Amino acid sequence: MRTPKILLLTAPGLYGARDYWPLLRHLGASPQSVALDDLRAGKAKLMSFAGLVIPGGSSYEDVVGAGQILGGLMRFWVEELRRFIAYGRAVLAVGNGFQALVKCGILPAFSSAAPTAGFAPNDSGRFEARWVHVRLNTQSHSPFFEGLPEMMELPVFHREGKIILKSPKHLEEIKKNKSIAMQYVSDDGKLAGYPANPNGSIFNLAALSNPQGNCLGLMPHPERFTSVYHHPNWTRQTFRKPNVGLELVRKVVEYAARA
Amino acid sequence: MASLTRPRGLAVPREAPRSTAAAPPSEADRAQSRTESLAAEWGRSSLSLRVRYQEGGRVRQFKNLYEETVGHASKRLKGACIWPANGIGASYLVLGRGDWALGSGCGIAGGAWDLEMLAEAQRRLAFSLGQALCLNPSAAPILTASFFSLPSPQGTADSAAKILHPKCLAPLFLREFAEFSNRFGVPAPSGGVCFDGSAAPGGAAVIVESLAMMPAKAAKQRARAGDAVVLISSRGGPGGAAFDEVQQAMAQAFRREFFYRAVALGAGGLAEAVLGLSAGRGVSISLEKAAAPDQAASPEELWLSKQDGLFLLAASRGACREIEGLFKERGLDAREIGAFTDTGRVDVSWNEVGFVRLDEKEALAPRRADPVKAVWMGAKTAKRSRSVGGLSASALLRALIADLGVASREWLVRQMDVESQGHTVIKPLQGLRHDGPGDACVLWPHGLTGDSADHRAFAFGCGLSQRMLALDPALAAAFACDEALRNVVCVGGDAARAGFWARAAWPEWREGEELGAVARWLQGLGTAVAGYGVPVVAHQSRFGGRASFFTVSAAAPLADMRKAVTLDIKGPGNPVYLVGLTGEELAGSLYAALWELPGDGFPKIAPRQAMAAFKAVARAISSGLVLSAHDLADGGLAVAAAQMGFSGEFGLHLDLDLLPRHSGAIDDLKLLVAETPSRILLEVRPEKERDVARILRGLPARRIGETIANPILKIKGLDGSVLLEESLSQLKALWQAALPEALGIPARS
Question: Do A129 and B748 touch (CB under 8 A)?
């Protein structure tokens, strides 16, 4: 596998970059931390990279809403980003990064440029830090899901993780074009309410992708399940649960290497 | 208050005339005086005081209270790996194979219970993280632990000002604090909330401990004469985004060897930071350079006012321009404001005219002519009033487990980011459904060591002993050390290589009985250090609050984190061992506090014997013989057993007659609820029971029962009859509902 060059976006408070840099290196990628200001100044060109990771955190301290400022600042970049995605390059946006992608209208991917979704505060009215069960959409075209189990456990950490859509027709549309990537489920795999759905997202949406699946945004944090010892119950498991977070990021790197 | 503003015996030579138009004499004098006061405050924070201590008819003179009680005892320990660092409270505990170290920054807020307290607590959190970041140029903050002493919602009259009633303010306070903490990207897997009904009315305190990890080799730099002092400021204030930028810029600057030491500015402003950075070397500051171009501040304000989100660097000669450029790229401001000298003095000028001059050695040494007076009147005993007669063991257990001192903290923990950075492998909520309690957390910093095949880790736990503090501060300190240590042992920490961090918030500085309690507390801490053979790595006290509150945190290494255990029962049919003797003394216990019972004497604490037991337990865990371990704390044996059971959803069948106990201990109820320290409950692998027995040989440890499939807690009394049989699911429901009910927040779904 050739070493894919991956752009790791950084911005004030986007502290997840500190987790992704060593992780991407570990998986054989060549990550390069690039600040949004440097992209704006033309010091780095997105198209020279094989992949993009927008990590989680609390960009600009989420002072006007989670990912709102970052998403707003990214607007200058949207067209280039759309081209990047259209060329089939890998994009992974997690937590705050996902919120920013939604804010700037990249996800969900519709023909209209205007944002059709957003994030609202969790139904519980507070920050939610817990491990959740998610079910992958087996009909998703995402190349990042190849070989991953349909059901997996991942941690979520957010205060505004409730995905809302502009209108019911948008839900139908994302169902139809297979943009639903993951849903929150109970431990027996059924759609369920809180705390299985930790934020009250419509249709238990946990992750969205573009119809081709090479741009994936998700609220659960795969970078926090990269070792079997990250699982909260590893001390009671005879057979340790596979560290699916690592596998998911590995698929992104492998795809980027092929692209 | 007079003693706060005019310290005695801290006269410093003044040579430079200060009468200029830019800096009027009155302002310079005030600045001089306040700088001296600040230096005196340092003495108080570290408790490095000259003290005349009176206890009964006995008088003892301390030339340096902290050093003679705790400091020397810690440094004398054979094999103790503490490195002194610049500034108060900053030193490192060397872990692993000696190749990496842990240091801690601390923030303490104490005062009236109001919304300003929240802002102050948030500032203290940011400061403690800044302090941790500055411990060493390559330090990476790795953990924060926040401890709250809040008024009890149960003990406060409903007629109290509504907005300040704990039911109204506490949920808001804790939620806002958690959200602020989450913005820093540093996990918060440990901490504690103490709803102290007996604290001064309307008072609260918050202590924040921030741990940083760093390579041990790089932690020894001292300032060099001729090098530059650079002030870093961010426009965003003390929040997480600015902190993230500062952290990254500092890491980059250090990699390029532009600077070698740093300090964070806090309540003492630039003056305190300069003293910390100089650390006795000597420094010359041009104060006018510290003002931002658009800042209209007087020299006194610049020098002494509280400032957040600012840092001071000791930079290599000639690197200032590069530093300025590097920080500017991240929207941060860097300005050279002075240089180090070798005079041992802090010389501050304003437009080239002397403004403040301080001999550091004179100012920081505890050389007061008159020692401060400290008097200890003797331990108080619990009141003798209501009787517990008629209450069954089941009713007692239900009351204890639903008490706010024991109740689940899940509501708060779920709001804290405990897993950022991906180091937390033993988390604060444990058990089958990740909602049981935890004794301590384990962090596996492979991201920092860069080697995921290296399974070395460290455990972090804490001890709180508020009830005992009101009775005897010395015992409280020893009990908190014991609790912190057994907590880290319960997850597999190596007790023999542990270290303590002791932090305290005290009421107003007053000589006499108030200071006597502080001196007594320090002596207890010193006794624990000598007894357990575990050093106090750093200590800090803050005066001026309303309530007395202290914490002892402990960190201990694990050679292999894969051997760590949690407290939830893992399966049926496993032997259960109790390590440690149980006594009947109840003073300071939750049971005595709930029913205001006669003290029945203080529980006995024997640190040397306890340490032998802790080492044995740690060995059993690291050998893979133990399935789960839980320390016995608030509520005693019954509560600990219930927590283990309901977290793992298996039952326990225990027999009090098998309990290792003090001679003469014959009361079933007392054995059930006594809080004798140094006790740990173990669930051991049945096939390895013989090995466990061998490791525990010669210690007060015995098999007291076994785990069962039926999720009930069944305990037989000394006469063989069933003393208690309770459904664990019901106990768990009580335990989980108590905090939401008390705070008036929705219960967990």
Answer: no
Encoded tokens for B463: 């001890």
Distance from CA of A56 to the nearest CA of B (A): 10
How far apart, in whole angstroms, are the C-alpha atoms of residue B285 and residue B266? 18
User: Can you tell me the distance from the alpha carbon of A117 to that of A174, in angstroms, rounded to the nearest whole number?
Assistant: 11
A233 touching B (Cβ < 8 Å): yes
Q: Over the stretch A11-62, which tens digit does the pLDDT of each residue have?
A: 989 999 989 999 999 999 999 999 988 898 999 999 999 999 999 999 998 8
Query: Which range has the top average pLDDT, B71-80, B355-364, B732-741?
Result: B732-741
Other CB atoms within 10 A of residue A47 CB: 10
Q: What is the DSSP string of B572-599?
A: TT-EEEEES-B----TT-HHHHHHT---
Interval A122-133: pLDDT, tens: 999 999 999 999
Q: Report the distance separating Cα B115 and Cα B169, nearest Å.
A: 8
The pLDDT of residue B168? 84
Check A157 against B417: CB less than 8 A apart. yes
Helix H or strand E encompassing A185: strand A180-185
Looking only at the bridges linking them, the beta strands covering A128-136 and A180-185 are antiparallel
- Number of helices (H), then strands (E), belonging to chain B: the values are 23, 29
pLDDT band at B748 (very low <50, low <70, confident <90, very high): low
Which member of A19, A129, A159 has the closest CB to residue B421? A19
Per-residue tokens: B242: 């600015």
Q: Give the bridge partners for B191, in sequence order.
A: B146
Read off the pLDDT of each residue in B477-486 and give the average, rounded to a whole number. 97
**Would the pLDDT of B388 be above 80?**
no
Between chains, do B568 and A236 touch, taking CB under 8 Å as contact? yes
Whole-prediction pTM value? 0.91
Residue with tokens 């609202």: A120
Sole residue written with tokens 């000597």: B282
Q: How far is CA B480 from CA B101, B188, B398, B409, in A?
A: 24, 20, 25, 19
Quick one: which of B237, B137, B126 has its CA closest to B185?
B126
CATH 3.30.450.150 assigned to domain A5-258? The reply is no
Burial of B390 (0-12, 13-18, 19+ CB in 10 A): exposed
Residue B8 has pLDDT above 70, yes or no: no
Alpha-carbon gap, residue A27 to A8, rounded angstroms: 14
Q: Which structure tokens are listed for A210? A: 């573009």
- Peptide linkage before A12 cis (omega within 30 of 0): no
Domain layout of chain B by residue ranges: 565-739
Biggest distance spanned by C-alpha atoms of chain A? 53
Q: What are the distances in angstroms from CA B405 to CA B66, B396, B529, B727?
A: 30, 15, 26, 21
- Within a 10 A sphere around the Cβ of B749, how many other Cβ atoms? 9
CA distance B570 to A102: 43
* Fold type of domain B565-739: Phosphoribosyl-aminoimidazole Synthetase; Chain A, domain 2 (3.90.650)
Domain extents in chain A: 5-258
Helix (H, G, I), strand (E, B) or coil at A90: strand
> In this complex, is the C-beta atom of A131 within 8 Å of any C-beta atom belonging to chain B?
yes
Beta strand residue intervals within B216-350, DSSP E:
228-234, 259-264, 283-286, 310-315, 332-340, 345-350
Nearest to B447 among A19, A131, A236 (CB): A19
A43 touches chain B (CB under 8 A): no
